[in-house]
UniProtKB/TrEMBL annotation:
Key words of the record: Hydrolase
Biological-process GO terms, alphabetical: peptidoglycan catabolic process
UniProt-listed InterPro entries: MurNAc-LAA_cat, N-acetylmuramoyl_amidase_3
Pfam family, one: Amidase_3
PANTHER family membership: N-ACETYLMURAMOYL-L-ALANINE AMIDASE, N-ACETYLMURAMOYL-L-ALANINE AMIDASE AMIC
Comp. bias intervals (Low complexity): 53-92
Any one Gene Ontology molecular-function term assigned to this protein's record: N-acetylmuramoyl-L-alanine amidase activity
Residue stretches making up the MurNAc-LAA domain: 199-322
Record's protein name: Unannotated protein
One GO CC term, this protein: outer membrane-bounded periplasmic space
Length: 326
């Protein structure tokens, strides 16, 4: 009997011990599972919070200090780096579309100002090679050709046609803002004028500002973007250089609203100083050139040949002018 009682007592003690251990094991399992779920959630939240530096960029290509408030996507809204957060965009709504470019009011800054618009090159230059090849004074001790044919796309879209399209858009925009506009050319039927004449037109008009509009043709691999050509000081243009250089920076800042990036092959941060251009050396009124993009680059060309880009280019130039005078 004692043996049976001992056995029963042992069984009871064993069962009691087992029952007391079961809740602890279950509790441990639940705790581990909760930690695992929290780890997954926390990691996902951290991935969304830790955007790589620079991964979210504004969609206009503007410089860091440019005013793109009307046409950009916030860097916290969309990442342009497809590897930044693998899978984190699943089940999310599509990113917002960039708003169309809306220029700032141009008056009263431009009202009454005399602006010269110089559309680069001309349609008749190809048939007047001897005329445009004559050497003329380009100032600063330099002689250059009277004019050149300009560049164009590989499929036949000429620079002179692009520059005139932007120039005519700019003329309309400036006149609507109350400016007095002087056009170096209003069509593409002639040749020239020579660089000396282009400078003289601005000087004779006593212009408050002059701009020469161009498109580049560079064959370096991957070369794209716009840049502004500003004057260096010569004996003739010294008085206008500070204003021209200031306008060049304002134009660089404003032109990013077109969607064209800063040049990655010429200049520094979208600005290039030139002492060999007759249009700048011979001008006594503030003047800059702008290369609106590289017509030998497929991405740049796709923008440049559209009416929307040409209108936005004109609006950006006018905005920079208003900022200069405002």
């Amino acid at each position: 009997m004692r043996d049976r009682r001992s056995i029963k007592a042992g069984i009871v003690l064993a069962l009691f011990a087992a029952l007391t251990l079961l809740p602890a094991c279950g509790s441990s399992s639940n705790t581990d599972g909760a930690a695992s779920d929290d780890s997954v959630n926390t990691t996902a939240l951290d991935d969304n919070a830790r955007q790589p530096s620079g991964a979210g960029t504004d969609q206009t290509g503007t410089s860091a200090d440019g005013d793109t408030s009307s046409s950009t996507i916030s860097s916290s809204t969309i990442s342009t780096d497809p590897t930044a957060n693998p899978g984190s965009n699943q089940n999310q709504s599509p990113p917002p579309t960039a708003a169309p470019y809306v220029p700032r009011p141009l008056t009263p800054g431009l009202a009454g100002k005399v602006i010269v618009i110089d559309a680069g090159h001309n349609g008749g230059n190809y048939s007047h090679i001897n005329d445009i090849n004559q050497l003329v004074d380009a100032g600063n001790g330099v002689t250059k050709q009277c004019d050149t044919t300009g560049t164009g796309s590989f499929d036949g879209y000429p620079e002179y046609a692009f520059t005139l399209s932007v120039a005519l858009e700019l003329q309309s925009t400036l006149q609507a803002a109350g400016a007095q506009v002087v056009m170096v050319r209003s069509d593409s039927s002639g040749w020239g004028p020579c660089i000396t004449e282009r400078a003289r037109i601005g000087n004779d008009a006593h212009a408050d500002l002059a701009i020469s509009i161009h498109g580049d043709g560079n064959d370096a691999p991957g070369a794209r973007g716009f840049h502004v050509l500003v004057p260096v000081t010569t004996a003739q243009n010294a008085a206008m250089v500070p204003t021209a250089q200031r306008f060049g920076s304002l134009l660089r800042d404003a032109f990013g609203a077109t969607g064209m990036p800063l040049s990655n092959y010429l200049g520094s941060n979208g600005i290039m100083y030139r002492g060999d251009l007759g249009g700048l050396n011979l001008s006594v009124v503030p003047k800059v050139f702008i290369e609106c993009g590289n017509m030998h680059n497929a991405e740049d060309l796709a923008l440049m040949r559209t009416g929307e880009f040409q209108r936005n280019a004109a609006n950006s130039i006018a905005t920079a002018m208003a900022n200069l005078f405002g």
